[in-house]
Each structure stands twice: as structure tokens, then as C-alpha cells.
Amino acid sequence: MPIIYIVAISLLYLSVLFGIAYYSERNTSLRNRFSKSSIVYTLSLAVYCTAWTFYGSIGKAASSGLGFAGVYLGPTLTAPLWIIILKKIIRISRYLRITSVADFISSRYGKNAKLGVLVSLVSVAVAIPYISIQLKAFAFSIDILTRQTYSGASYIQQTPFYQDFANFFAISFALFAIIFGTLRLDPNEKHSGVVNAVAFESLIKLFTFLIGAICIVYFIFNGVTDIFTQAKSVEILRNLSSIGTENLSYSSWMWIFILSGIAFVLLPRQFHIAVVENNSLKHIDDAAWMLPLYLFLISIFVIPIAYSGVLTFGNSVEADTFLLSLPVQEGYNIVAILIFIGGLSAASSMIVVSMIALSIMVSNNVFLPLLLRFEDQLKFIDSDLNTRLLYVRRVLIVAVMLLAYGFYKAVSINYSIISVGLISFAGIAQLAPLVFLGIYWKYGNRKGAIAGLLVGTILWGYTLPLANLMDVGALDSQILKYGLFNIEWLKPRALFGIEGFEPLPHGAFWSLFLNTTTFVMVSFFTKRTPVEIAQSDIFINPEKYYNQENPNSPFTREADFQELKSILESIVGKNKVYEILMGYFKQNNISSPPQNADSKFIDYIEKYLSGSIGTASANIVLDNIVTQKPIKITELIDVLDQTYQVFLYSKELETTSNQLRQKTKELADANTQLIELDELKNDFINTITHELRTPITSIRSLASTLNKYNVSEAEKTKFLRIIEQESKRISELVNQVLDLRKIENSDLIHLTTFDLKELIETILASFTERKEHRQLTIQGETITLITDKSKLTQTIINVVANAIKFTEPNGHINIHWVKEDDHIKIQIEDDGIGIATTDLEHVFDKFYQVQSQQEGKPKGSGLGLAISQRFIQSIGGELTVESKLKKGSVFMILIPINFEKEQKI
Amino acid sequence: MKKKILIVDDEENIVISLSFLLKQEGYTIQTAQNGKAAIEQFEQFQPDIILLDVMMPVMDGFEAAQHIRKIATKELHIVFLTAKGTVQDKLDGYKSGAEYYIVKPFDNEELLTLLKEIN
Asked: What mean pLDDT is predicted for residues A51-56?
């Protein structure tokens, strides 16, 4: 494939990336939407997956089988811990406006500048090889696409500078980082454009990797089974399918796992994305399961691809390149280009975020403190500082890129991607004791931290990267054999005379073990300064400070307000200062700028300064204009304890007031329920009264009439029958009310055996008069039931009476029944006025009457259906209703055919 | 001339008993089963007095009274005759345009006296 195509594709992809970053940074609504999304956050965290993942995992799998999976399992299995630890780190960082891992550590140990420098140097030392392997991945991918094969180190080393495309790639991404990473000096250091572009790249990575995997596994080979069947006949592959072989020891597996779990949070780019760019603590909860899912998806095909590569190429092709070499060899050019783009996105996202993170770290924690130390500080702080800092960062980005490029040319070419990556992981893990112990162990101090970090880093450098250089002969390989200065126990791969470790577990173990031990021991035997005590208090109990906007400082500090303001102005810009001051004045009800700034105000300003120029630099700057009253350590500890007590107390108060609120709500609910019951009772009484008055009216009036007038015999009979009817109606009502009470008290059941059809016919006969012109039809077979006959009868009568009440005089009522297993379903269907949906759920409520006077006047007590439902429930059944307004209703009775049998079950 | 009375009630038995009583006393009677039917009959019958129940299907007494008040052209007396006996019910009745409100069960003589007074 001509090189010009590849250049064109790369440029196109880069411009898409620039477009996304630019557009999503400018478009406010888009920016807000993305910043609220935990998916975007999770995808941006997947910047963890670099070219290492994309190409290198396959290389690792080809030599050690499941060994590759450690780097995925580390973050996956530690993900639940993020919810506690990462959230705590984010809370602290947000409160103190911390912008890098170096800032975090320097702030924790007394705002110390030396620690900031040390951590920054470790981070750069670790990042440069790591960036260089991304360049390597890019170089070999171009090589394979243009020349069908990867020609190896010698070829690349001979390529002149201007023809090397890794170089072109490096320049493009330095440019990207410069444009989007140093747009402005923002105290929060958020770069939403970059984050969105990185999230997009994570999608591309996953998508193209899966396409490549499917192409190799299902098109070049015949599926996973095919690959594994063929692999059985190849000896090297047989040895790869388990852990604990010579290819993959348990200890190196375990160490890869531990180191990757740590690196996921502490690598500069990971810390930047996970902590500095985090917009909501809630996103952590989602990321804790979504990220493992992402890692799972991107790792699932690694082994089959690695086996495919070995089966196809044997040892003739470098295993890191299998993902690309296989499709190229088989002529799948489109797939190859997609994979190339995926690799490009994996490498570029890592490089861009790393460079932004490193430039912030180095400018704030190395460059500024050194400058402030040597220059006349107050002279240096002028209105140009802001722009000058951005230039410093740009220069740093270029410098880091050049170093990485140099390292790539000189060293990385000779190593597999993953071996370089793991050394970086072990390096960054040296920060772990300082960070993780720092947020839980309050006695860890500055001296301990510096000593531990120095010991750890030196041991790491000696046992891992330097030992590797000795291995390839770049350094004196005699040291490997005989130890430094010929001292036996200083052999870089067998420290203290302990042999038999593999290089990675050996280096990681000794460096981390002695790092932690030194840190703890030195901290034990040295004292903390007041600033260290105060800072450690914030890191260990961040919640004590986090929820209060301006907690009281334990220190008594004072400064000239105007001086403080002009310093802030030169660093964050005049407009921003106005905003910051207004915010503070408003919050504290201050009307005019004070002459002297107090401790609280200085604390507030310090946080903004720290956000822009780092904790240590801000501390140095403020030292010049702030006077601090000395404080005794015992006093300080008292103050901190007191504030902690206040914090606990207010937390307790909060719980109590929550409980009170809960109780109040319960009371209010109970009250509402009482009112409802009361209304129900009034309604019931009104209804009963109404229902009693109506028949009495006829009886009374007719009785008087009979008494007073001359009435014909025919009419006399008619009147007397009415009086009789209405008297019956009254007694029926009374009986119903009594029934209700009876049911509420007991549920006695009398079982009888009878035929349903006969029963229904008898019931319908009793309606002959009442039904007027309504058509009553039945449909169903003879069936013998064993159940409470009178309860069933009463229910059917109630429902049919209702149906008559609510249908037109020429309406239709149909009763049909059908057997359903050991149950019988009786349906009573009418074409009457129906029941509105709002009433439907209440028709079985006691006393409930459909109160729509437009539609029909309730002629019952509102008890019939309530009683019927209880009857049916008491014989193990259900009474339900379906209805449509103006179309009619269907009441459904579902009861066991044999209730006796049912009860025994 | 005989006074014309329109009896509006959905309870058949009450209609029977009222019709008989009032016919005996020499009134001309027509009956309706609900508010809507009452409005329809009102046009052609032009009663002097309406005896009106409240709770009825299709259209209740309050609504019917309001409607009839609007279309009435000559002198008309509306008497509610209902089992709804709360104060609120009575107020609603007067508001809808009735002059009298009698709670069921009523006394025959009381009703007759009232009707004579209206005369």
C-alpha cells in the first residue's frame, strides 16, 4: 500500500480528532451533556488501553498465554475499591484544587516542594519509555502496511529523521496537546475537548480491535474451536494454556496484577483523567462496572489471535504485530487500515493525555518552585506570568516528546512493547505507599516520604531498567554477573543474595518493600511540622472539610489585602480575580474589601493559587507576603481534634434531624389516612341514610294516602305491594351491613356439592321481574362444584344485580363459564354504561360508589362488591373486573372447583 | 284552572305514590325519570311547579334546575324533594334555583300545605 494513502488516512483521522476536541469544547450544550455522562468518563478512563493493549497484549499472549490478562485483571478486580479510595482522592483533590499526582503528594506532606520535584521526575522517567513504545507501535504498523512485513530495528534505525513517520506522528500529537492542553491557565485544569476526543478514541479502539479479531478468528480461521484444535498440535502453544509454567510463573502473574491495579490510578495520565477531569463522584460508581466490561471486551480475543499468529508465522514475525500482519498477509486491506486507525487512536490518546498531565506537573512542581527559589520572587510575579506559564508548558510538551522520540530510537526498538510497559508500571508503583498510606495513616510525614520514595526509585531503576540495559550490553554486563563494585549481594537481579526471582517480581518486590519500610520507619522516628499535621488532617478526613466551603484554618495568618489581590491577578487574570473575590464576599457577607486579609481569606486564595501553579509554588509565593503567628504542635492538635468533634457532632445532628423528618412524615401520612377514613365513614353514613330514606318515603307517603283517601281495591293492592317491597329493601340493606361485620369477624365456610349450571339458572329465575326487558343469557356446561354455595350465590346475585342496575332496560347480560385446570372461571358480561378507569381500581373498596351522577345513580349501599370480593377470596378465588366506559363491564369469578382439595394442599 | 305539577324522580314507587296523592288533590300531573327527561317535558307541559329529586341517572336535579330556570318564560316554582339532607345539599339546592327544599321522607300534609301556599 502506498505510503501516501497512509499519510492521508492518518491526517484525516487527526483532523476528525481535532474537530471533536474543538467542537465539543466550544459548544456549551454539548460540553455540558458530555460532562454529565458517566459513559464519557468511563471511556476516557479507557485511555489506560494504549498501543500496549492494542498490539502488545497479543505479543505477550504469544509468549506466555494468559500472562497478558494480568494488566486487565488488576484494574478489574480493584474496581470496587475505587468507590472508596478513588472517591476519597477526588474529594481531597477537589477541595485543595490539586491538579496532578505530584501536587497531591507534595500537598499531603506539608506542601513540600522537594517532594513535588521528586515525584515529577519519577513520573517523567516512567512516562518517557512508555510514550516511546507508542511511537514504536506506530512505526511498525506503518512498516507492515507499506512493505508487507516488519523489518525490525535495524531498518528503523537506518531511516533518516525526515523519512521516519513516527517522527511525523510525534509532532502531530505534541501539537494537539499544545493546542488543547494549554488553551488557558484554569485553576481546575479541566480540558473537556481533550476528554471527549479521548473518549471517542476509546470507542474507535474497541470497535477496530473487535473487527480485526473477528476477521482473523472467523474469516482467516474457522472460529475459535478451529484455532484451538490446530494449536493442540503445536508444542509451544500447548505450554501456554496454563499458569505456573516456565512461561508464566505465579509470582509474575501476581505482580503484574498488583502493579496494574496501582498504575490504573497513579500513572500521570490516569490520575489526570480519573481525578482532575472528574466531574461527578457518581461517575465512579458507573465506571466501576463499565470499565471492567470494556477491558473484558477488548481482551476476549487476545489468545485466539495470538495462537493464530503463531500458527501462521511461527517465529518469523514479531508477535506484537500479529493483529496487523495477519490481515495484511491474507489480503484484507480494509481491515488492516481499520486496525491501523485503532492502533493510532490507542497510541495518540495515551500520548496526548500523558503530555498534558506531565506538562502541568512539571511546570507547577519543578519549574516554578525552582524559579521562585532563584529569582527575586515578587519581581517575577507580574502580569505576564500567566502567559509565560503556558509557554513553559508548551516547551515542556515538546521536550517530553523529543525525549520519548530519542528513547524510542535508542532503546525501545529492541524490546517488546509489554516489557517496557511493565517496567513503567513498577516505576509508578513507587508512589503508591505515599498516596495510599497518606490518606489513611496520619503519622506518615515529609521526611519518611522523601526517604521512601528515593530508596524505592533507586532500587527500581537499578533492578529493572538499568539491569535490562546491562542485559543488552548498553551498560557493563559484568555488573549483572558479579554485582556493583563486585559486591555479591548487589547483583541487580539477585539483591541480597536471593536468587531465583524473575526480573519483574524481583525488582517490584524489593523496591516496593524497602520503599514502604523506609517510609514507615522514618516517619515513626521523626516529627511532623505544624503544616504537615494540618495537611494530613485534610487528607485523612476530607469529608470534614469538603462539605464546608470555608472551614476555619488552624493557623493564624495575616496579609495585606491589596498585595494578595495583585499576586492573584498576575496568576489567574484580572477578570477571574473579580469573580473569585465576589464569590468570597457574597458567601461571607462582606460589603467592602478589607484592609487586612485574615486566615480564612488567605486559605481561600491559596486554593485558587494552588490550582493554577501547584501547591508547593503557591506556598512559596504566599510565604513572602503572609505573616504567620507561630503555633505549638499541641495547640494545633487540639484545634484539629476540636474541629473533628464539631464535624462529628454536626453529622450526628444531621442524622437526628433526618430521623425527625422521617417521623413527621409518618405522622402526616397517618393523619392523611385518618382524614381519608373519616371521609369514608361520613360518605358511608350519608349513603346509608339516603338509602334508608328512599324506601321509607314511599312507605310513609302511601300509608298516609291509604289512611286519608278512598282508594280502589286494585290500587290498594298495588300500594300495599309497594310498601312490602320497600320494607324488604330496608331489611336487605340492614342485613348487608350486618354481613359486612360478620365477614370482618369470621370466615366460616360451609362446603356443599352442587351443579353450577343449576345454581345460575335458579339465580336468574329470581331476576325475572327486576330485569324488565334486559336479555339474560347463559352459556356453559354442567359442572359439579364443591365450595361454599351461599357465598357463591350471594356474589353472583350481587354482580348480576349490579349489571342490571347499570344497563339500559333493553341491554344484554351474559353469564358464561369455562373450566381452567382445577379452577372454574365464571364471567358476567354486560353492555351497560361501564366503569371509568379512575373508578375501576376502587370498585371493590368498601362503601365505594361510582359518584358520577351524570352516568348513574348508585342504588346500593356501596357494600355489595366489597362483600362479594371477600366471599370469593374466602373460598380461595379471585373476583376481578374489566370495563370500558360506555361499552360495558365484565366481572370475572375464578374459584377452585373443589375447595376441599384445595385446602388440603 | 288546575295547577300543573311535573314530578321528577327515578324511584318508580315514589312517583306512583306522589302522582296518586296530587291527582287526588286536583293537580294536573306529568312525570319524568331524570333531569334530562324533565327538561324535554318542560317545554311542552309548561308546569307551574316542579317537584325535583337530586340523585338521578343521566342528569341530576341541581343541573336540571339550573337549566330549567334559564329556559322558563313564566312564573315557575321549583321544590326539591330529596333524601340528601345535609346543610350543604340544601345550600346547593337553593343556589341552583329552587325555592323550597324538602327532605325525604316527607309528610303528605306538609307537602300539600306547601303546594297550597305556593298557590
From this structure: 80
Inter-chain CB proximity A696 and B104 less than 8 Å: yes
Half-sphere exposure of A722 (CA within 13 A, CB side): 26
Residues 56-85 of B with CB under 8 A from A: 56-60, 83-85
Please tell me the distance from the alpha carbon of residue A503 to that of residue A420, in angstroms, as a whole number. Answer: 13
Topology annotation, domain A635-728: Helix Hairpins (1.10.287)
Best residue in A682, A698, A712 for a mutation probing chain B (most B CBs within 10 Å): A698
Residue A850 with chain B: CB contacts under 8 Å: none
Residues 6+ apart with CB under 8 A from A14: A172, A176, A348
Q: Which residue of A has its CA nearest to B54?
A: A853
Q: Choose the CATH number for B10-22+34-110 among 3.10.560.10, 3.30.360.10, 3.40.50.2300, 3.30.720.120.
A: 3.40.50.2300
Residue A683, chain B, CB below 8 Å: the answer is: no
Q: Which of A533, A530, A532 is nearest to A644 (CA)?
A: A533
With contact defined as beta carbons under 8 Å apart, do B79 and B35 qualify?
no
Contact B107 A704 (CB under 8 A): yes
CA distance A403 to A833: 86
- The answer on pLDDT for B6 being more than 90 is yes
Inform me whether the C-beta atom of residue B14 falls under 8 Å from chain A C-beta atoms. yes
Give the pLDDT confidence of A54-90 residue by residue, as tens digits: 888 888 888 777 777 888 888 888 888 888 888 888 8
Residue A853 has pLDDT above 60, yes or no: no
Above 90 in pLDDT, residue A893? yes
Instruction: Please report the number of interchain residue pairs, chain A to chain B, with beta-carbon separation below 8 angstroms.
Output: 83
Domain extents in chain A: 3-65+112-250+284-415, 548-631, 635-728, 747-904
Which position has the higher pLDDT, A146 or A865?
A865
C-alpha cell at A600: 480564612
Q: Which residues lie below 8 Å from residue A212, measured CB to CB, with a gap of 6+?
A: A305, A323, A324, A327, A335, A338, A339, A342
**Predicted confidence (pLDDT) per residue in A466-502, tens digit:** 777 777 666 666 666 666 666 666 777 767 767 667 7
Strands A878-884 and A812-820: unpaired
ipTM of the complex: 0.90
Mean pLDDT of A363-377: 74
Q: pLDDT of A442-467, one tens digit each? A: 888 888 888 899 999 988 888 887 77
Question: What's the burial of A119, exposed, middle or buried (CB within 10 Å: 0-12/13-18/19+)?
Answer: buried
- Give the torsion through C-alpha atoms of A498, A500, A505, A507, to 10 deg: 50
* Highest CATH level, class, for A747-904: alpha beta
pLDDT computed for residue A37 by the predictor: 82
- For the entire predicted model, the pTM comes to 0.62
